[in-house]
Amino acid sequence: MLPTDGVMSFPGQTWEKVLSKVKKAVVFMDDRCSESLHWNGGAALLFEAGARNIKQFSSFEAGGQNEPKAVFVVSTVLKGKTADIIKDIISFSHFQYCVVFTTVPHSIHLLANNVTTDLEGNPVFDQFEEKLCEWMGDMNYTAEVMHAPVVFAPLTQQFHLLPAFSEIFPLLEVDLEAINEKRPEKKRFGSLMDVDMHSLPPELQIQIKSLASALSALFEFIGTREESFSVGPMSRLIAGELASHPQAKNRRKSAPNKASIVFIDRTLDLTGAVGHHGDNLVEKILSVLPQLPGHVTDIQVDMLELTHLKKTADTKGILAPGCLAQNQSATARLLWETMLVAKQKEAVMEVRRQLVEAASKENLPIKMSLGRVTAEQLCSYVQLFRDSWGALESHSGVLQLGLAAAQALRHPALPRWDACLAFERLLLQALGDSDLAEVLKQLLPIIKSSESGTDSSELSVDDLLVLLVYVYSVAKEACPGGADKEKHVEKVENELIGALTLRLTRQTSLSPLLQEITGVSGPEELTVEHTHSVLENMFETLRGVSHARDHLKNFSSVYTPSDGAHQATYRPLLKQVLEEIFHPDRRECPDVEHMSGGLTDLLKTGFSMFMKVTRPHPSDHPLLFLFLVGGVTPSELRLIREVVSTHKSGTQLLQGC
C-alpha cells in the first residue's frame, strides 16, 4: 500500500476497533469523537455494525432496562470529570458489559497519574476496568478499556482535521507571562522559543503528547519514517515531541517509506485566518451559517426547503439539519472537494451543474438558465426534488451542499463580508502611510456607531474584533515605532476599549463569539466593569499577536508596502514557507527548524559545525505533510495547492490541522 493510500484509509481503520465492539450496545460518545465519526461515515457506521443506540456522553443520559451493554468513546484521560460522567451513566443503567475507548494512550495516562516509570501491561486501564465492574454492581461483569486514536476527520483525501485537538493553539506573550509567574526569577524564559514541554500546564502537555502519539500511529500505519520540522514555538514543541516519541524509534529503523512533516503556528499569520480576501464559497458558508451543535468543523443546513412546510416559529427545529460532511455519495464528495478549494464563481457553477445533472437523471422538469448563478436559482433546483422521495434520497448529499451554498449566498450577513474586505484594504494601505495609532483611530467612528450591526451596511461587533486582529497581525512590520509611538498607541487603545465597552453593553444579544470572549451567555449579565476588564485582556493578547513573528528571520513580515506603482499587499506566511521549501536551490532556512529524533541526528547537527554535513530539508522526501497548529482556511488550502502546482514539485502534499 502506498503511503498516500494509507493516509486516506487510516482514519477509517482507527474506527474498526470500536466497530468490532458495538454490536447490541448503547454507544456514548463525546463531541470530539462524534465529530471525527461524522467525517468518517457518521452514525450509520455504528448502526451497520450492530449498535442499538447512540447517545451523548453526558451525566443526564443512561441505558434502558433491556440494554445490558455499553460502549463509551471519549477523547480525554479516564479520570476527573470523564470518570464521573461514566460512573453517572452506569449508575443509572443496568449494564453488565462495558467497553471504554479513549483516544489518549496508556503511556499518557501514566503521565496524567504522575507515574514517571514505564510499567508492564496497562495498569491504569486495568484499574479502570475494576472501577467499571464496581459501578455496574458486580465484579463478575465484563469490562474492557482500550486505546483507539479515533481523532482524524478526513475532509478530503488530502486534508484531515483533528477535532480532538482543536483547543491546542499556539502560545502568545500573555501565555509566556503566565508560565514565568510560576517559575523562579532566575529560571524564567526570555522568549516563547525557550519554553519547554515540562513548563506547560499538565493538561496542555497531555494534549500535545496525545497529538504526537496519534501522528506517530499514522506514520506507523503507513510504514513511514518522518523528519519533523517546525515554524513557531508551539510547533517546535509538537515536532520535538513527535521526533522523540518512544514508539517511533523502532519504526524509524525499519520503515520503508520516508516523509517530511512541517508544523506551522497559526499565530504567525492571523491575517490569513481572519481576512476576507479569500474568494471561496465554503469560507463564506462557514462564516455565516450556524455551527452544527458540538462541532467545530461543520455547519447546519436548513432542510425546510426540501419540504412544503412554511418557515414559521412552529416549524423551526422540527427537521434535523443537513451538513457539509457527505460520506455516502461519491458525487457529493467530489462536489464538496471542488467547493472547498475552487474560487467562488467556479464553485457555485459546479453546484448548479450537479443539481441540474441530478434533476435530469430523475427526469424532473428543470428549467435551464445560463449566466450568473443566484441563491434563488439554486433553491428552485433543490425544490424540484421535494415531491420525489426516491430522488431526494438518491441525491441527498448534493442537495445539502446546494442548500448550504444557497443559504450562504442569500444570508443577510453576507453583504458585511464585502464591507469588511473593503475596510481591510483601506487599513492595509493606511498602515504604510500612518503609524498604528492613526490606523486604529479609523476604527473609532465605526465602533461609536449606535447601530447594532444587523443592517447590511453596518459592521457588527464581531466584525470589528476581527478587524482588530487583522490590523495587529500585520502592524509590527508595517508600523515600527519607538517609545513615544507606543504611548500614543496605548492612548488610542484605551479609547477603543472605552468605545467597545459602551457598544458591547448596549447589545441586545450576544453572538457565540462574544459569549466566548466575555464568558457570559446574555447581555443582561454584562456589566461595564466586566466588559472593560475583558477588553483590556483582549488588547493585551492583540499586542502579543503583533509580536508573534519577532523571532523569525526570513518570515518576519507578511506585509509588502506600497512602492508608488503598486499598492501595499498582504503576503501569506504559508506561501512564503512553501516557496522556501520548494525553492530549486534547496536553501537552508533558519526559520524552518529541524527537530532531531535521536543520537544520530544530534551527531549530524554537531558535526555540521566542523565539517560539511547536509542537514535534513523538508523537500528531501516524496511526501510532505503540512500541519497547521491552530487551523487553516479554505482559501489557504487553495493557496497551498497553487504553490505546489506552480513549483511542479514531485512532492505529494497532505495537510492537517
UniProtKB/TrEMBL annotation:
Protein keywords: Protein transport, Transport
GO biological process: protein transport; vesicle-mediated transport
Origin species: Cyprinus carpio carpio
Transmembrane segments: none
The keyword Protein transport is annotated on this UniProt entry: yes
SUPFAM superfamilies the UniProt entry points to: Sec1/munc18-like (SM) proteins
Name listed for the protein in its UniProt record: Sec1 family domain containing 2
Family: Belongs to the STXBP/unc-18/SEC1 family.
Domain of life, source organism: Eukaryota
Family annotation (InterPro entries): Sec1-like, Sec1-like_sf
